[in-house]
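User: Please predict structures.

Assistant: First:
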Amino acid sequence: MIKRITFMMFLLSVVSIFAQNYPHYTIRQLQFVPDSLLAQGNEQSPRVGDTVQVTGVVMVPAVVNPTFDRRPIMWAGARWQTYLRDTNYTSNAWAGINIIQNDTSAAAQGTLMDLIDTAQVVTITGVVAEFGTAGQTGTQTQINVLTNPLRPVQFLGSKPNRGQPVEVTIAQLNNGQAANLLSGEKYEGMYVIIRNVTTSDRNTSTSSSTPFAINDANGNKIFVHDQSGYFTRRTHKLREWEPPLDGTTIQYIRGVIGQFSSSASLPTRYVIRPIYPDDLLIGQSPAAISNVRRNLDVVGRNQAVTITATIVDNDPGGQVVEAKIRYRVNGGNLIDLPMTAGLNNLWSATIPGVNQDSALVDFYIWARDNDGMISLNPVDTLRNKYFYLVLNRPLRIQDVQYSPFGSGFSGYNNYRVTISGVVTADTSDLQGDGNQISRRVHIQNGTGPWSGITVAGLAADALRRGQNVTISGLIRESNNNTVIDSITSIVVNSSNNPLPDFATVSTADIGTLPNGTISAEQWESVLIKYLNVRVTNENADGQPGPHGGGNSNFGEILVADNSNANTRVELQEGNHPYHNLWAANLDSIPGNIRIRLHNTFTELRGILFFSFSNYKLVPRKVDDFVGFSNNVERLDLVADNFSLSQNYPNPFNPITTIEYTIPNDGFVELKVFDILGREVKSLVNMNQSAGNYKVIFDASSLPSGVYIYQINVNNFQATKKMILMK
């Protein structure tokens, strides 16, 4: 523990100057939620929005060292983060809470949060908040440190250490993978220990936030979340570290319980966040299976395929005694094929050739060591099998993208291929978000599922929409998108070709589904469109308004069609004027169009992309937004009965307002007809929730005359007249 006693007298003098009258609560008072609310899925603190003071013991410093190494230990972007536990170390429920300082600019560093250290007793002033989206991925109670007005940390002394963790089981936290709120919520933000479990879901990606999971004997699972720089391979790492091999026994893991999900569609679940290197004690490991390769990039009919894998038992005295390939053809019976050991722990076997065009061969590797421990690669033999196609024809994009088991991975991942297609988006279309998503190019072969792919690398920058190209390169998975990269050749066969038609897809097909889900994955990098959509949330990641000050806005909105299923649309990456105010200056730029709640489109078009745990439609340019209307506004959430009001003004020229109320959710049609009964305008054609609505009708394209407007919703119908006088 880093001692900072030299600061104490100074800090205590500062505290007396800034003492405030904000109410003081215990951690339990801020965290406690009764079972009656938890049973309804409501886990929010009763003090959300209140400015409070809370006292607790610091579990981890905000930075490694305030003088010599100001990197954060618990990663929260540019923010500072710590956890407090109740000063009564015997408290075993509702006794921990997350502390976040969102503003760490020079002006805000007077909070002294960067000086806190493990086991110090402090009082912190801040606003109670819930991190996350209620009803989707669960929420986590936190204190947002008050920086305006600025209130420094009060240092009250120190404990000998951070105290012993509370012993829990995975079953108390998660039922399967879904959060067990009734028995788990009390441990949110608390320092706990879980013993005698085994690992799975190993992920060595440098972008993975959940590097592995731990499992009990009853099928309950909890993921390890890599907030700590000591347990990650991402850029905030504080050491070189590898997650344990699948099947490794864990004697214990200690850490803080939080809530996290890699996708909004995954169930609410708890995760454990180990803090220091000694928070994980590893036991025995099974043999490690790696570097699984086949000898052919593209497999033809009757071609035998040799599979090799490196299989090593790293335990003292450990030895691999048996290994085999378990394969099948077109979903038939599994066939066991013994593998032979060679030099440098390289095992191999050959799958016989298949005399059938487009046959699907899938397989996994099985190994046993001298302790009887079994290894599989991949571990999940349902979603992540290795596979290849047997082809008696040229390779297509559809073959390369095809991922039938739900992993999202191509059968050609890390193999070299040559494919052809028409450029559907170039770097003038998709210019990136100016931060973590860069400009990119997509090509597509015809229409339908699996027909598009991303072209990565600088070699693609010169490509333009409408070019028919043949590309040779390496297939790989980049941030859960299949791409062709490391390009060795691009041939432009022709230019100015018509683009493939947009595939009509329901928002329910994409929704908020997790990566690899086939109904969504099949449209990755493909031109698609949604019909008759409405904006259901103008900021999918936070409150309306620009990013900053604790608000997350990454330029993404939620929309839904008549299926009522929400899905994401990314506005920030395309080259068009539509925005949701992710930056404060966007409204002031001439020609920009602000998208708000309840706006509608007859069509929203673009390319489906996956980033940051979500599938999202990415419109390219302005012509991907069809039939934009900002004419529907919800005025009030409460409505007692059905009604249709007289338009005002009336007569009008050329704009008038129509209001209506619906007391129940329903599909609403509001249409305008001429005096002969011919429909001239559809104003509303969507599902709406109960409330009072206002619609702006612009009749500038219609001649003067008497018009009829009619509403139909559930079993209610009403009709009124209006007069257009130009």
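Second:
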Amino acid sequence: MSKLHPTIARVTDRIIERSLESRERYLELMRIEGERHADRNVAMPCSNLAHGFAAMGEDKESIASQRGPNIGIVSAYNDTISSHQPFGQYPAQMKVWAREVGATAQVAGCTPAMCDGVTQGTDGMELSLFSRDVIALSAAVGLSHAMYDSVAMLGMCDKIVPGLLIGGLRFGYLPQIFISAGAMPTGIANKEKQRVRQLYAEGKATRAELLESEAKSYHSPGVCTFYGTANSNQMMLDLMGLALPGSAFIHPGTPLRQALTRAATHQLAKIVRGGGDYRPLAQCVDERAIVNATVGLLATGGSTNHALHIPAFARAAGIAIDWNDMDELSGAVPLIARVYPNGAGDVNQFQDAGGLGFVVRELIDAGLVHRDIMTVFGDDLGAYAREPWLDGDRLAWRDAGPSGDEAMLRPAATPFLPDGGMRLVEGNLGRGTFKTSAVERDRWTIEAPCRVFATQGEVAAAFAAGELDRDVVVVVRFQGPRANGMPELHKLTPPLGVLQDRGHRVALVTDGRMSGASGKVPAAIHVSPEALGDKNGNWGPLARLRDGDVVRLCGEHGELSTTADLASREPAPAPPPEQGTGRELFAMFRLGADEAERGGSAMLALAGL
């Protein structure tokens, strides 16, 4: 085994030390809960049990007698999200496959599954981040029935996997496997999609032309093919050993996809308590696994949304990781993948070039990840340095081999960049995230007068009026968790991209979110503290910025600052929270939310985690 890189070892040790008390409390709770729920016939009255298997038909007797393990299915199925549509057929299939190994399966519950792609730039986006809390709560409601020996988590996209992880970790005494539905086939070329979007932003393409282009890109069941938050989720599940190896991007409806889901069902029956190979989620998700997830994110240029999600689901396991840890890891982890929007090819081409099997092997060989973690399959993370295939009708795994396309995947010894390209920037404007791996190096430092906005719509109007045709730092504030739920500001990318293409020096600074699909414009995002003041009246520095203040964003030296004297100013008034589209129902989440660096969660904050 390769010796662990000293930076990886140092950061891991720091996280372990910082998390000693909280991790110990968590593991003790899981020990107590596991013992309490080990035998349903002891823990549950007969009436409760009868309610729980009343509708289970031919599986009733097996569940009642505990003849075999009972697998709970938590599904995020719906027809609106293309990646989740295939999950509609999974429960019926999994029940058959469970019976093949003497087990049973029943749907424990369903969770919401919200698509940022559908709600992008609309009112619904203000519910997006907090949907992660709702998903975690929904998973907890389903698992609270205490009928299950292991859990199949069916979910793929943006907030869904982090939400399922948070909810599942509070039942961490149960083994849990995350099951993907796979990636849709490739549509139109990404550069063509981006070209039409920018033409539309300039008024040079019609809405019909834009819709036709988008429909050719997002065109069938399966996850979107760009390397955004959804596909970064799937990558992290492999790096943490929580899914079957290499199962992330296999297309829906294929024999290999079905074979992987069948194997996951069989594995869930095998790794239960009392079966001789017990692998509870609480033991799988430890400090080393959290570091592995972060390293994978950095090595592949994954979504910046995980600067929020990793700290959030780590907290649910009693683990404390912060942006300083992520920044230090970024300095040691080379960028070995370039997938759109950081490169030309999509996740299907990434898979064809070697995919996650190649990535895991390179990271293990370079000593950049912890191989010796408990995984849901195989002896350790080494099982994930392979790719699945069908040897006739038999599911098997093989070495991923060398990169099939070095424009997309490179060995760790000859990377695209020597660092992971997700930098912490900080200064008198707060702390934020800058995804340098998506930006040309000559744009890592931008210093210009700022223009301050409170909404995306204000930016669009100023762009249309020609007011931003210059070197400018666009500041969009009052977009944090407490202000309006921290929506993703993806609609800013086309107009800012146009300004940059016109030769201007442009940057974005915001306390809102941008995704892994954000692209080429330098941006300091997730700025903390957010502009809106907390209950003690502590306003974030962005609230005191004014038009014309000179702002400096520097990814090279990790700087986010202004020359303006902010201390002498009163904060600008925040716009009141909007009503409609159910946003008023989420007031409790906004009021209770903590800062982005801790995950921007009301639920975890109020739970004292």
